[in-house]
Amino acid sequence: MCRMCDSLGGDAANPWYLNPKNYSNRMYKLREPGKGPQQAATAGAIEAGGEAQHASPINTAIEAKANGDMETFNKIIGEMNKRAALRPGCQVVPLHEVMEVLDMGMPVAAMQCICRKTTRGCEECSLKEYTGLGLGTGMLKWERWPERYRGKVEFLSTKQAKEFVEFWDKKGFMHMLMQEGGDFIGGLCNCDYPDCLPIRQRIDYGLTAQLVKSEYVCFVDWDKCNGCGDCLGRCDFNALKYEATTEKAHIDQFQCFGCGLCETACPRNAIEYRDRKQIPGLAKVW
Amino acid sequence: MEAIIAPVIDIDRERCTTPFACKKCLQICPTAVLAVHETRMVRLEETDKYLPGTYRLRIAYRDKCSGCNRCVDVCPEDAITVRMLEEVGA
Amino acid sequence: MTAAIERERVVFPKDWTFDLAEEMVEAIAHEFAPAEVVAELARRINGKPQAEAVAEAEAYFADHGHRWMGRTIELGEKYRDRTYEVLLAAAEATGELAFPHVPERFIEIAYLSTQPLYSLPIVENTRHCFAFKMVFCDTYRALEEQCGDAMAAALPCRKSCLAAVDRAFRDKGFDVEVVQDSSLADGEFCQFTSRRREAASGA
């Protein structure tokens, strides 16, 4: 078991994200005595994007790397990983289990991807463009911070939400549950490299603890694979290639995140999920 | 192994004032080195992307900059310069 | 990558509030203060034998829970907030979400108004089930203080919670089975779980 299930109540049969308790959330809270008014309507501006962000450890590490100082870079990344490992992080979830998550029926609202806004300046402002899903009763209060949502969200029925995720799966986005430090699940992201912050931070900078691999590893059934190549180009993690020797797809199990994008693209069902925990050499590769 | 030193990128913020509305450099960068952030979040209000200073362009992943200069070429305000370190003279 | 669609910048009215109206919370707190509810019970059962007293207490609490939730729904509908309006619109648009969230709102209001809580510990709120727990309960504490440990151990006050939760769902059009999974009398908290009866599932 990985630290996610350890701390969030999952077991061998049901990982943490299929435990309904992890989606439970209140709608209201009262102001505690001594704290300010619940809502100063006209005040409440958050200063963002300023020097504070430049000073964050990851940005210091990236600057060090850009200047060729790998010693400082490795030191900071090592410390960040150690800290992040104490708390749950985000986890990759394959499509078939995303469907089970959506079946629990919490509020689900399609929204703009915050990472893609930041890295590419994207302005997703309609259901056709949205790529992210906000989860939970917190979405009922999205209007408090319209900038975060660029002015709109779209609440979806379970059926619509499933179609939404299937649509982006087909397009080539993998799925991640955004667990916020053990407190709540903020969203279900559909994303790829390089726009997505957690994917990028793991792949480019080795921040391994914030984004956890899925419960699965993908295997190619070489009897079924005919080398058609439909799965190629869908792997974000350099795990999948076409192996010229065998004329079939090849998956590096240690690179594989178990996102299943290759599986959902395979017309011959030649890719299968295996439980990571059941494979001795991979049980601790998260 | 010799350390790889990334190019130095400068943004003239007198010239680059509405990067979220413009976003040309963000969308053209092959390795997505740049990022844009709102400088303020106001309750109940979307930020005005045309108002100078409401968003700020940031060099987020300088180690991934190859010095290809596509952002320099696409910037309508000539606000970006990319130089290799020997040119900077450090 | 799609080009940005030009549109009006969104600016919402500054007087929108997403929190519960304090006036409403205070009114319910005043009308259903646990210490006074229990004091009234203590007067009624004073001197009666234990078995008779417990039976009367249970009937008293069942009635109390019913009235408590009735008044909460009345005031909760009068004092709407933006969170509730968004929920109603989302429920309308999706055909889902009314269960459990509309009754959940009134259950939260009822407990936040009368119990020493800043937020109600929700254990589960999915399309099938709504469960919450009470760790520090003023009603239970008042029972111990005013009616004695034996009466508290009988936990007649559970009838109030069961009745209130049942009414919240029933008044909002949902048929649920409300059960108590855990009790303050022999554990660390009370937990109440409402499961939707499948025959009634639709909206």
CATH class of chain B, named Alpha Beta
SSE order of chain B: EHHEEEHEH
**Poorly predicted regions of chain B:** none
- What's the CATH architecture name of chain C? 2-Layer Sandwich
Largest sheet of chain B: 2 strands, antiparallel
If strands are numbered along the chain, what order do they take across the biggest sheet of chain C? 1-2-4-3
Helix and strand element order of chain C: HHHHHEEHHHEE
Can you lay out the helices and strands and say which pair or pack?
The complex is a heterotrimer of chains A (286), B (90) and C (203).
Chain A: H1 3-8, E1 46-47, H2 51-54, H3 57-66, H4 70-84, E2 90-92, H5 95-102, E3 108-111, H6 114-120, E4 132-135, E5 154-155, H7 158-171, E6 174-180, E7 184-191, H8 197-205, E8 211-212, E9 216-220, E10 240-243, E11 248-251, H9 261-265, E12 271-275
Parallel strand pairs in A: 2-8
Antiparallel strand pairs in A: 2-6, 3-4, 3-5, 4-7, 6-7, 9-12, 10-11
Chain B: E1 8-11, H1 19-22, H2 24-28, E2 34-38, E3 40-41, E4 55-59, H3 70-74, E5 80-83, H4 85-88
Antiparallel strand pairs in B: 1-5, 2-4
Chain C: H1 22-31, H2 34-45, H3 50-78, H4 82-94, H5 98-114, E1 122-125, E2 129-134, H6 138-147, H7 149-154, H8 158-171, E3 176-182, E4 190-196
Antiparallel strand pairs in C: 1-2, 2-4, 3-4
Q: Can you give a write-up of this model?
A:
The complex is a heterotrimer of chains A (286), B (90) and C (203). Chain A is α+β, with helices and mostly antiparallel strands. Chain A is built from 9 helices and 12 strands. In chain A, the strands form 3 sheets. Chain A has a 7-stranded mixed sheet. Chain A has a two-stranded antiparallel sheet with strand order 9-12. About 2% of the residues of chain A have low confidence. Chain B is α+β, with helices and mostly antiparallel strands. The two termini of chain B are 20 Å apart. Chain C is an alpha+beta fold and 203 residues long. Chain C has 8 helices and 4 strands, in the order αααααββαααββ. The interface between A and C is large, with 42 and 48 residues. Strand 1 of chain A pairs antiparallel with strand 3 of chain B.
Task: Label this structure with key terms.
heterotrimer; A: 286 residues; alpha+beta; Alpha-Beta Plaits; 7-stranded mixed β-sheet; two-stranded antiparallel sheet; 17% strand; globular; B: 90 residues; two-stranded antiparallel ribbon; 4 helices; elongated
